[in-house]
Amino acid sequence: MYKIIASDLDGTLLTPDHKIAPFTKATLNQLHQLGKDFIFATGRHHIDVAGMREQLGIPAYMITSNGARVHNCQGEVIFKQDVAEDVASDIIALAKQDPALKIHLYRNDDWLLNVEDEELKKFHDTFSYKLFDVDNPPLQGLAKIFFTRDDRDHDKLVEWENTFNDLFGERVNVAFSTPWCLEIMDAKVSKGHALEAVAKEKGHTLADCIAFGDGMNDIEMLSMAGKGLIMGTAHEKVKRALPEHDIIGACDDEAVAHYLAELLIK
User: Fold this and answer.
1) Catalytic residue list contains 8
2) Calpha distance 238→139 (Å, rounded)
């Protein structure tokens, strides 16, 4: 049976208000006592996720920025892959031409944003953004670049997805974490490859892993794991990309925890 549990956060493990609910916390702690390893696998920043790990109260690996950073249970970086500086420079230069785009950078220990956005602060209790000058952006240490729009126009973001793929396709991995958040990492980065690295370090294989997710940035992980489960609320693109994968309930029902409890806790 599965030795490693990997889960996306927003739309998957967390409640709609972005919290770890009591039953989920209790279930993951019980699984830890049974010798199962848990891995956060998210597009979020590692500083943000470290706070959640403290709340959860168990040692856990952290796959963050969609796999651009991997931290072990002691908080040590065991994998790091940045967006190339020349690629980052060109991407930001293109994106700043569209005033509707909000440009975000995950750089080392910081989250940087080109304009104020009070709504975003609701998503993060202990971690928030700092402003950066879009005309003089920092280019070193960028785990990922991502884009949002106040109007949440998915079609407009798809246009940008196509543009970035056309211009930088072999050097970047472009994916949606939600329909309104377009993310860019180095081409060698994905949650699936990060999960494989963690499994090998712990003496296991991908066949020993069960994974949960709801976004296009979860597809590699869900397809590479021994068992990949799609949330019922996932975007239709995810379901179409993985037609043979089982679909479970919603995050507001703590579907991940209930599935794990039924499958792994006897």
Assistant:
1) yes
2) 31
